[in-house]
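User: Sequence recovery, please. Input:
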């Protein structure tokens, strides 16, 4: 791909999407951001990218956008991303993650789209499994509507690839964390912990705190999205896990965050004990991704450790507060 071609990043005002936009811009690519600012923020927008306020469920608006700008690559990060919300509102989850995707693919196939990069999930799509770390060939058995719609999206991409020749790269993320993550929702436990601790509040741990996740830093995820622009494909398709291969349970994570707050940042009045609440529906017990395929095909592996990432995230929220 040449840097004169246009990349459309949906959800480019959001947590992960904005980091990807910044990385593309820094490398000299021309970028258009499509975002309805429901969860994205104006403060995350890169001034060098063209911003269009749009809801991807609006077919006419999507058609106008793509017909006008004719992006050759779409990087799709606009999504309903909450497992809990998908359980409570499965129809809305489907409308955003299903219909929104179809609108992009339908318009894209009519206006010269060459490659589609899709932010999928490496946790929710596999469901609970004994294969830890989990490889890409593991059966997909999602336990939540969110995971189901992400799996549905992968199947639609296969169909549009087979039928219309649109190349696609599917990136199955583990739990992404870092600066700009929303600390007020139910997702993003590291951001939630850090923000609560800075505010001298005790966060809530749901269940027994032994649920484990694979935490990958957002800057490493952005690098994977750069590699996805030119990654070699097999039959015009590629699916990769983007994770660290290391699992950390919630109790251990909270201990790490509090320890760094006290011993690295010298923060005072740290709440040492978290509040407890019942476990939440749709949550997996364990999630951890095997990244060997990403290492082999695109030379990707994480470069920021969990400890380093927590420090960078804490610094971000401390500076935001001040």
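Assistant: Recovered sequence (322 residues):
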């Amino acid at each position: 791909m040449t840097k004169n071609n246009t990349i459309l990043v949906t959800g480019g005002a959001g947590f992960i999407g904005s980091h990807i936009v910044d990385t593309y811009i820094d490398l000299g690519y021309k970028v258009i951001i499509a975002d309805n600012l429901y969860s994205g923020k104006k403060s995350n927008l890169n001034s060098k990218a063209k911003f269009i306020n749009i809801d991807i469920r609006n077919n006419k608006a999507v058609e106008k956008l793509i017909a006008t700008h004719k992006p050759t690559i779409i990087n799709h990060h606009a999504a309903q991303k909450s497992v809990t919300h998908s359980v409570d509102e499965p129809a809305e989850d489907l409308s955003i993650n299903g219909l929104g995707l179809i609108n992009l693919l339908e318009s894209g196939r009519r206006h010269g789209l060459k490659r589609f990069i899709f932010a999928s999930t490496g946790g929710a799509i596999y469901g609970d499994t004994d294969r830890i770390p989990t490889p890409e060939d593991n059966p997909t058995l999602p336990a939540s509507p969110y995971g189901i719609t992400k799996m549905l999206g992968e199947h639609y991409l296969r169909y549009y690839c087979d039928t219309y020749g649109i190349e696609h790269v599917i990136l199955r993320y583990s739990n992404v964390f870092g600066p700009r993550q929303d600390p007020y929702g139910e997702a993003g436990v590291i951001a939630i912990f850090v923000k609560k601790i800075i505010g001298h509040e005790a966060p809530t741990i749901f269940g027994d705190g032994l649920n484990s996740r694979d935490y990958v830093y957002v800057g490493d995820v952005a690098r994977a999205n750069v590699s996805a622009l030119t990654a070699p494909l097999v039959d015009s398709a590629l699916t990769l896990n983007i994770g660290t291969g290391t699992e950390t349970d919630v109790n251990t994570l909270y201990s790490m965050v509090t320890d760094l707050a006290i011993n690295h940042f010298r923060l005072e009045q740290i709440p040492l004990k978290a509040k407890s609440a019942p476990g939440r529906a749709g949550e997996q017990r364990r999630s951890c991704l095997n990244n060997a395929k990403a290492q082999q095909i695109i030379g990707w592996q994480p470069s920021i450790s969990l400890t380093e990432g927590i420090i960078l995230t804490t610094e971000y929220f401390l500076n935001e507060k001040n």
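The mean pLDDT is 95.
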